[in-house]
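Dissemination and training. As part of the outreach component of the grant, students in the summer workshop were shown how a complex can be specified as a set of sequence lines and then modelled as a single object. The example used during the hands-on session is reproduced here so that future cohorts can follow it. Participants entered these lines:
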Amino acid sequence: MVETNDEWIVSRTGIRTRHFAAENEYTSHLCVGAAKSLVEENNITIDDVDFVIVATVTPDQTMPSVSSQVQDKLGLAHAGAIDISAACAGFAYGIILAQGLITAGTHRKVLVFGAETLTKFTNYEDRTSCILFGDGAGCVLVEAAPKGNILAAVTGSNGDGGKDLYLSNMRKQINGQDVITDNKIHQNGRAVFKWAVTTVAEQMQVLSERSGLPLEKIDWFIPHSANMRIIEALCNQSGFPIEKTLESISIYGNTSSASIPLALHRGLREGKVKKGDRIMMIGFGGGLVYAGVVVEWQ
Ligand code: UT7
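and obtained this result:
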C-alpha cells in the first residue's frame, strides 16, 4: 500500500506482527473476548461486578458507549458503565478511577478494559502511521481488598500538544491550527516521541517517590507500547533494566489503550509476573495526556 519495508519497520519500531479485527468485529467484541479470557484463565466469576470502565478512542459508536454494550453482553445486571477517552493513557486512568470508586465505598468490583480497533481508523496512505497500529483488548478486575494494592498514581495533561496526535471527524481546528477531519489517526511522530521520552522518564521518578519504592524495588515496568525505541530510551535514561520491562509492541503493534494490559497478560502467561510483584505502568499519548500507577499484583 505504501513505500516501506520490514527492515525499516522492525528497526524503527520493533513491530514484528500485529492483529486486525475482522470487518464485522468491533471494540465491544474484543472486550467481551478479553473478559471471557479473564474468567477462564483465573477461574473466577464476574457476575457481581458493579462497574465497567472501557478506555478506548475507537468505540463501535460514539453512543451507545462500548461499556454499556459490554455490560449487556456479559450479563452484568448490576453494573454501571462508562467509556473514558484518554488514548494510550486510558487504561492507567481507568485503574485510577476504579481505585477511586472502591475507596469511596460506592463500588466493590470494577472491570477495567483497554480496548481498540485502531486499524479501522488508520490512514493506509500515510506510511509514518499505517505501519504502527494494531487491534486488541485487555482487562483487569479491580476489587476491594483489606490492604490497598495501588501504591501510587500520577496523572497529567499537555493539551497544547493536541494537534500532534488526533482523530477528528468534526471540529476542523485544534488549538487554532487546521486539522484533517477524515476520521483517521494523524500523528507528528517525532514530536510525540520526544515528549513521550521526556515526560515518562520524569513520571517514573515521581511514581517511585510517591510509592516510596526506588526503581530497584520495582519488579516490572510496563510503559505504553508505542515504539520499542521509546522503551529502550526510557530504560537507558532511568537505568531501569530492559529485561524487567514488559511490552506488547513486538507482537501486537501499537494498540493504544490495550497495549499495557496486553503486555501484562503476556507477562502473566509467560510466568514472569507473580503475586506480590510491584508493577509500574505508565500510559501516554493523544491529548497529549499521561497516567501511571504502581500496583502490587494480586
Ligand atoms: O501511541 C501514542 C504515542 N505515540 C508515540 O509515542 C509515537 C512516537 N513516534 C514514533 O514512534 C516514531 O516517530 C515513528 C515510528 C512514528 C517514526 O519513526 P522516526 O524514526 O521518528 O521516523 P521519522 O518520522 O523521523 O522519519 C525518518 C525517515 C524519513 O525519511 P527522510 O526524511 O529521513 O528521508 C521518513 O520519510 O523515515 C521515513 N519513513 C519511512 N520509511 C520507510 C517514515 N515512515 C516510513 C516507513 N517506511 N513506514
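The helical segments are 6-13, 27-42, 66-73, 90-104, 189-211, 228-238, 249-252, 259-269. Students were then asked to discuss how this feature might be tested experimentally.
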